[in-house]
Amino acid sequence: MEGLFTANNVWMMICTALVFFMHTGFAFLEIGLTRQKNTINILFKNIFIITVGLLLYYLVGFNLMYPGFEEGSAGFFDFAGFGIAPPENGMTPEYADGGYTWWTDFLFQGMFAATAATIVSGAVAERMKIGPFMMFTVLYVGIVYPLAGSWKWGGGFLDMRETPFYDFAGSTLVHSVGGWAALIAVWLLGSRIGKFKDGKPQAIPGHSIPMATAGVLILWLGWFGFNGGSVLSADPELTSLTLVTTCLAAAAGGVVAAFVSFLKYKNLDLTMFLNGILGGLVGITAGADQMSPENAIAIGAIAGALIVFAVAFIDAIKLDDPVGAIAVHLICGIWGTLAVGIFGSLAGVDQFVSQLVGVLSYAAICVPSAFIIFFIMKKTVGIRVSEREELEGLDAHEHGMDAYPDFRLNEH
Fold this sequence. Notes:
mainly alpha, Ammonium transporter fold, 2 strands, globular, Ammonium_transpt
């Protein structure tokens, strides 16, 4: 038992490191798909999210997300107190069925918490003031994400249903939670200067597509920990199945997005290929341990097709999302969550209804809370930089720095 406990815990720590590495992927993807003059700003936000996110998760988040709901409670809100003092059996196999220790549990979940705000960072890139973004991160990662997370992963009301809501690694709990906030933020911020001309969307090319490509491959690697660690042990059958379904969905998402994009626009668009991979990954995340390889390919393929139409739709309704975060994380997050009721070993009408209730429940907390946070800031301190700051770049105005001081050729 002791050897198994150690092996499980080591696997969970490796997965924690992989999820941490995803923050590199997010940073590379965001800076690659945006302009050179805003690089420092995006990197600063990404570093702020992981550092402050971990401290907030230590202070309140972990015990807000895992409060230990009392028998017979409504399962909406509880709080187990500040800090992360381990329980009596926290370092023994009795804790978490021998899968890992209390400390590992905290760190693994803490890595997830920061991801939700990173999704918003890409969507608001190139035009949001840094101060209000930092304030949003504190409130959303500190309170909204763990409170919403407690409804399922903390044993709350969605987990108490007769047919429990199912979200294996966070298509809804992580990706849609970030996606809903991104949608509200983009709507309240408005589009970047030059994005819409006479009502038609204009391409604003990113400054480093190689960097964005590296970011997506790093994110895919990180997903081995994101989904693989969500087994919560090193169970050979479940971890290996989960990694197979994760990879097949990613591959199918990429190929189908590239193909559908080619049919629609008659060009082989690398950024669509990349976002298709991410869409497949987000889509499989809710049910990665419940699917056969064939199910995974189908879910990923549908996510890949969805990406192409979702990106076009978001442009059509005049929302400016520089990195496609809403299409990837919100739309594919919803799709992946509902897919648990359609494909795999849990599929059925009752499960589908439960998945739908879960999706709507998260919309019901994320949309109003994100709106309140952004709207109050918009009316008080303002959330958008001035026209001059936007045109000259946030790096110079918000940070007084240049990401590439010796590289002046590429200032489109």
